[in-house]
């Protein structure tokens, strides 16, 4: 283990290198670019023994990743925003083909109009695909999550999407603990798939399936998702044993006695924690629930964390127009059969990178009783 | 060629889903005899998505990966590089796509793969329309031809996209046009493609009895006539060498004979046929064939 000051993007590239992927197809897009620049450099100077494929679009990046993974090697790609949207069709195929591709998405708004800053519209609108989704708070968490992602994805044969907020994490320097290659290898064994394109054992992959078979295959994806909690838990325990860092499906901050709880995913967790400290100094019992896993959605843990007499403000950096923030929807759904439900506020903020300051969150907590819990709340 | 030399091995199983007289099935059968069992097929949406059979069956004795419409060349790039990383650089990674997946929706990925010098073979079996969805026009549909989206004939202002030269301008290792109606030409070109290293592209003219409105028994004759009338020219370009025409009939037949055989051209009047004949003559002159 070695300590270093790294940009979020560089920390991610270090994590990818430690995972020893063989194929990295990628196409540049702000703010993902640094990640693939560093990986390209690492493959060029021999630090990373892999092939970097400079494809001509994100659609082809996803397609080449699918091909490489189907050929049986560990595969990584990264993108953002419009790039993730362009990949959409192939992202479905990667799930249906049960390929454990790992993708880092640097969260960024999608046009029109053009906007390069961060929100989570790009990945929230891909939530129904069957990719696992984790939202990271820090560069350290992003690095660690990449190793966990390959471990879990390869166990359950589903792809894994790791989210970082564009610029806020990707372009910010942070002190990061970089595991040694030996430690990483101890955690993540080489990838040995059972089925792949093999001329000694020719098979057809993805051939047309009638409803009966198709339905069963889709059902098996959902069953795998539901069963994945055990593998995630095992991965976290294994990770903690080797690296001494603990991760969960969710995380909390001063939650136990909190009367007001902010639910947050991504780098906004940091700002919110500072706001909570300020509120606590003024005797407002505020706390935080961090959503780390969004897919599979950890209903049980979230209900357990939010039960009791609490007011819950859900921060959404995306919105499902005509409905509500996606995280709010999921939490409401989790509480449907619970007798005691918290008061929920559906807050949409920070779209297109609109800045959120500590005082905004403090003001919000102080004015909570004046807010309409039946509507989407927007910042003034 | 001596047909006794054709490999006495079948990689195409009996009972595939090709229509009677389908040249796409015939072409695959013979292509695989050349390519052999160290071959992986990457297949975008096309008639062949059906011909290959539904899950859990397969019509092929080699590994086959079905992929989304626009992605064949990119998927194949990933497959090939993965094989190289696994220490198996000699595998033939072959895209097998129709004209829609090649001339239209897949073109960007093909251009990218060709420019990157990906070590793959891309085969387009061109039946000159979206036949699997029921005969809609593609940019490979010839001027004048009827399809369901060109009910009065493909307008003459359009010309069939010149895929050979589009690919040739990427300086590939090998690019060729051929058809299984001329097996010796077909075999020689697949052999060359197999032995070259880098991006290789073979454009096959591939007759389609329901789409061309021909009798199944005329499937091969139609492709022969396409070459003998000069509407389809069999050529190749090996690496840095000049473009070579690989077959020249003693005398080109009038294109009318090719059209006569096919229901998709039956609405054409004399004037239109003459315009098309003029265009063919112009191109043949440019190739020094007239």
- Tally of DSSP β-strands of chain A: 16
Please state roughly what percent of the residues of chain B sit in beta strands, choosing from under 5%, 5-15%, 15-25%, 25-35%, 35-45% or over 45%: 5-15%
Query: What is the CATH T-level topology of chain B?
Result: Rossmann fold
Rg of chain B, rounded, reads: 18 Å
Number of discrete helical segments of chain A: 12
Q: What structural class do helix, strand and pairing data of chain B support?
A: alpha/beta
| Low-confidence parts of chain A | none
Provide the β-strand percentage band of chain A.
15-25%
Mean pLDDT of chain A: 97
Assembly annotation: heterodimer
Biggest interface between chains: A-B, 42 and 46 residues
In spatial order, strands of the major sheet of chain B run 2-1-3-4-6-5-7-8
- Helical content of chain B stands at 25-40%
Return Rg of chain A in Å.
Answer: 21 Å
Q: Quick one: how many beta strands of chain B?
A: 8
Supply database-style keywords.
heterodimer, A: 380 residues, alpha/beta, Rossmann fold, 2 domains, six-stranded mixed sheet, 12 helices, 16 strands, 41% helix, B: 290 residues, eight-stranded mixed sheet, 8 strands, 36% helix, globular
What does it look like?
- The complex is a heterodimer of chains A (380) and B (290).
- Chain A is 41% helix and 20% strand.
- Chain A is globular, with a radius of gyration of 21 Å.
- Chain A has 12 helices and 16 strands.
- The longest helix of chain A is centred in the middle third of the chain and has 33 residues, at 211-243.
- In chain A, strand 11, helix 9 and strand 12 form a beta-alpha-beta unit.
- Chain A has 380 residues and is of the alpha/beta class.
- Chain A folds into 2 domains: 2-243, Thiamin diphosphate (ThDP)-binding fold, Pyr/PP domains (Rossmann fold), CATH 3.40.50; 250-378, Rossmann fold.
- In chain A, the strands form 4 sheets. Chain A has a 6-stranded mixed beta sheet with strand order 10-12-11-14-15-16, sandwiched between helices.
- By secondary structure, chain B is α/β, with parallel strands linked by helices.
- Chain B has a single domain (6-286), classed as Thiamin diphosphate (ThDP)-binding fold, Pyr/PP domains (Rossmann fold).
- In chain B, 36% of the residues lie in helices and 13% in strands.
- Chain B has an 8-stranded mixed beta sheet with strand order 2-1-3-4-6-5-7-8, with helices on both faces.
- In chain B, helix 3 (72-85) runs parallel beside helix 5 (107-115).
- The longest helix of chain B is centred in the last third of the chain and has 17 residues, at 270-286.
- Chain B is globular.
- The two termini of chain B are 27 Å apart.
- Chain A binds chain B through residues 22-23, 25, 50-51, 53-57, 59-73, 75, 89-90, 93, 197-199, 202-210, 213, and chain B through 37-40, 42, 49-50, 52-58, 60-68, 70-71, 73-86, 91, 108-109, 111-112, 115-116.
- Strand 9 of chain A pairs parallel with strand 2 (64-66) of chain B, so a sheet runs across the interface.
